[in-house]
Design brief:
By secondary structure, this protein is an alpha/beta fold. It is built from 7 helices and 15 strands. The protein binds flavin-adenine dinucleotide and FE2/S2 (inorganic) cluster.
Length: 280
């Protein structure tokens, strides 16, 4: 079945839900295993799949699991509408069709020998998590790892235990901020760019990877630029409506780019003029 799916990218491969974990009020992590018992499709950090929910529809979701795990594919999904709410309400054993993985992911090899700066907003931490696994798995290939993460409130912070575990790794700095802290929050409050002044950044020897709402990425990229990061060393993961995911239908077009096949990860150098046009 895997071979057929690879031959025809429009044909979903049958997977079933192995586990569902609640991350917060509206976000769930689903672990899917191939229904045929064979290995799961391999992927690169930053790639996405088209998940087919039978009778409902299909939607693009980034892979949030560990690339070395070949038993299953992991997705972290925020319920915002019909397709996502149906997806997160799947139970163990339910069928989900998977197309992909698609797209160009994070160019981790470009960061080898350099510091890795990861900037995430909200659910944007999910597509970046495989990159963090990759860096931690090959720790000697990279310099320092700096993770800056912004969530709406303390209750919305994703992967709390992992964040705490990553913060204990050597040569790793993890900073978390929230928009609204409440009385019991002792951490940073403010948008994610307010963390830059607390981070130990060496722009000349770093590559930055950012994912979150588009407005957040616009400010993150600009701010990193003014701090001395070269535009070609800042990478952003873009989102647009998708249908085919393989460059046929044009639904994901953004200026001259098809987000599904040219991205979703682009350098700020390539995206800057488009990102500055708010209405596109
Ligand atoms: C490459 C790619 C990777 C993605 N990865 C993930 C992921 O890892 N996890 C995840 O939860 N989502 C991810 N998304 C977004 C996800 O595909 C959409 O949230 C989903 O398609 C919405 O479908 P729906 O039917 O549930 O909502 P709809 O009924 O289409 O929309 C409901 C409401 O949510 C808003 N909305 C729709 N899409 C988005 C969006 N992308 N961001 C914010 N608000 C939106 C709509 O404006 C509307 O107000 C990704 C999208 C792309 C293109
Ligand atoms: S989704 Fe069809 S061209 Fe990108």
């Amino acid at each position: 079945m895997a071979a057929v799916a690879q031959l025809d990218p429009m044909l979903p491969r049958p997977y079933s839900v192995a586990q569902v974990a609640k991350e917060n009020a509206d976000t769930f992590t689903l672990m899917l295993q191939p229904s045929d018992g064979a290995a799961a499709d391999s992927f690169a950090p930053g790639q996405f799949s088209m998940l087919w929910i039978f009778g409902v529809g299909e939607l693009p979701i980034s892979i949030s699991g560990n690339p070395v795990d070949r038993d299953r594919l992991v997705y972290t999904v925020r319920s915002v509408g019909q397709a996502t709410s149906s997806l997160v309400s799947r139970g163990v054993g339910d069928a989900v069709g998977v197309r992909g993985p698609f797209g160009r992911g994070w160019p981790a090899q470009q960061a080898e020998g350099r510091d890795v700066v990861v900037v995430a907003g909200g659910i944007g931490l999910a597509p970046l998590r495989p990159l963090i696994y990759e860096v931690l798995h090959h720790r000697d290939k990279y310099g320092r790892l700096v993770l800056l993460y912004g969530a709406r409130s303390p209750r919305d912070v994703l992967f709390r235990k992992e964040l705490a575990g990553w913060a204990r790794q050597h040569d790793t700095q993890v900073l978390v901020t929230v928009d609204y802290g409440g009385l019991s929050w002792r951490g940073h409050v403010g948008v994610v760019t307010t963390l830059f002044k607390h981070a130990r950044l060496e722009p000349a020897r770093s590559v930055a990877f950012a994912c979150g709402p588009e407005i957040m990425m616009r400010f993150v990229a600009r701010d990193l630029g003014t701090r001395g990061f070269a535009r070609e060393n800042i990478y952003l993961s873009m989102e647009r409506n998708m249908k085919c995911a393989v460059g046929f239908c044009g639904h994901c077009q953004y200026g001259p780019h098809f987000i599904c096949k040219d991205g979703p990860v682009f350098s700020y150098e390539r995206m800057r003029s488009l990102l500055e046009k708010y209405e596109l």
